[in-house]
Design brief:
This protein is of the alpha/beta class and about 290 residues long. Helices cover about 30% and strands about 20% of the residues. An eight-stranded mixed sheet has the order 1-11-7-10-5-2-3-4. Strand 13 and strand 14 form a beta hairpin.
């Protein structure tokens, strides 16, 4: 189902379809005020520091300290609850801000993702932003089943693939514009209510079920819902997103020797960052990876 992309790492040779620069991307990072310190600071120290103009942080509370550290902070005024409605509220604001930005690609990630922006640009430049492109990685091994509410007492079963928000996904501007009747303004919230599913599922519903565009799956995106120890060390520089968290009650992160110990760097993001950008001021010199 869907097209396969990427293989393990960079086995698929990407043919460039158009010239892209990081400024053509709109990377939305979804967070919540209680994680500004615990999660977001790590991202601000690492990949966001190198791509401040590409990254937009969507949160639910004012934070003057955060605004001093990075330029694009958007308070969505959505609820801080981790409910379906609160998540859809944030995704709706992300979508509207992307459309307003005029940029070529919308990418959504969570506050526990590391984004290799260079690899993301390389991947997306092998497509045209004017075409219908939806790319990411499903967390399920089969399409999700849902019921579409047609009227008060009429329901219709639907099934479709969706890319998990926890690994990050991207949508071309061409496709995003077609989503507008179901995604812009208050429409996203009502679409999510119609199928009673979370934000990333609702995106898949609009694209696959309503518009009939298939998800392109890429193995270069990673969420904490998979065993991250299985990403080969030699392939780390080729991945588009990484994550960390818990998996089957064990700590789940990229497995690598790095500039920092697991105690100092449990997510392994600082070690990954120093591997990719050894010139970073806080990276120790002469580290063997």
């Amino acid at each position: 189902a869907g097209e396969e992309e990427g293989g393990q790492g960079a086995a698929r040779l990407l043919r460039r379809a158009e010239e892209l620069a990081p400024r053509d991307l709109f990377i939305a990072v979804k967070t919540t005020k209680k994680f500004h310190k615990a999660r977001l600071e790590l991202l601000l120290d690492t990949w966001i520091a190198r791509s401040p103009d590409t990254t937009f942080i969507f949160t639910d509370g004012e934070d003057e300290e955060l605004k001093k550290r990075t330029r694009n902070v958007i308070n969505t005024n959505c609820s801080a609850a981790h409910s379906r409605q609160a998540l859809s509220c944030k995704m709706a604001v992300e979508y509207d801000k992307f459309i307003e930005s005029g940029r070529k690609w919308f990418c959504h990630v969570d506050d526990d993702n590391y984004v290799n922006v260079q690899m993301l640009v390389k991947l997306l430049s092998s497509y045209l932003h004017t075409q219908d492109i939806y790319i990411g990685k499903p967390s399920l091994d089969r399409p999700i089943q849902a019921t579409e509410r047609i009227s008060e007492n009429k329901m219709h079963p639907v099934h479709f693939w969706f890319a998990t928000g926890g690994a990050g996904f991207c949508i071309s501007r061409g496709l995003a514009l077609k989503m507008s009747p179901w995604a812009s303004g208050g429409h996203f919230m009502s679409t999510a209510e119609k199928i009673r599913l979370p934000d990333d599922c609702t995106i898949g519903y609009i694209i696959e079920s309503v518009l009939g565009v298939k998800l392109i799956r890429s193995s270069l995106f990673h969420s904490h819902l998979e065993n991250l120890h299985q990403v080969p060390k030699t392939e780390i520089p080729n991945q588009v997103t990484l994550s960390y968290g818990m998996f089957e009650n064990k700590r789940n992160s990229i497995h690598m020797k790095g500039a920092f110990s697991v105690e100092e760097d449990p997510s392994r993001f600082r070690s990954v960052h120093c591997m990719l950008y050894p010139d970073t001021p806080w990276c120790p010199l002469n580290v063997a990876y």
